[in-house]
Design brief:
Length: 275
Amino acid sequence: MQNILINTCQCRSRTSSVEFGVRLAARIGAAVTGTYVYPSLLQAIPRFSTPDLVSTVLANAEAIAAEARQSGDGFVSWAHSIGVTNAAWHVAEDYLPEAMADIALWHDLFVLGHDPEYPWGSASDIASLIFATALPAIMVPAGPVETVQLDTLVFAWNGSAEATRALRAALPLLKQARRVVVLEGEQRRAAREVAWKPPLDLDAYLSRHGIAFESRAFSADSDEAGVRLLAECAALSADLLIMGMYGRGRFSEWIVGGATRHVLQHATLPVLLCH
């Protein structure tokens, strides 16, 4: 987790996800990349447009790009003041999922915000971005972020590939936690032709990484799993929820599972998700 990518949403203000991502990078000694992506205005021009209209659109696009580029020095200076040694700022004119997918290729973690007031801030948008980047991602809810707390981390475990990937991605954070709580649900296996495969020994795996944890049984039907997960996090005063992200492609959309969808929509704490 040495390179953190942040979707900034705004180039002139620092959202909760920007605050969280930079402060997390400072805490774990990671590099951080702030990225501002704006849509191509040329795509909005009608096919048969006047030269004046095209010139106006191009001028507006250049003004947006110039303002975004000028914000880079402020972002980098602020990140340095927080304690980040390596900070960078990128500006792109593109469709956001495609731009993030390209930049994600040299990053380890994606940080983005859940705030419907900003573009691409809804739960369905967040799911699309996470699937596009193929990175472990931390979704940060709206609200002030003055520090990054990693005292109590909750891991939703059901034996699935998604949950296992989330566990592996979260190891650097789990090692810093004062308390790790594993919510052990019903084991979920993907349907395969192979009849059996060795299960992960969670206790041995975490012990090899020097991580002590307490285990709690977790039981809920698919309709209530998301509600129960967030209720457990609230009862434990959790600082971060770690979970697999379940979804499947359908035509040009990704459809996420019920628990994932509820958490994306209603979480009031940061959530690390991995597909």
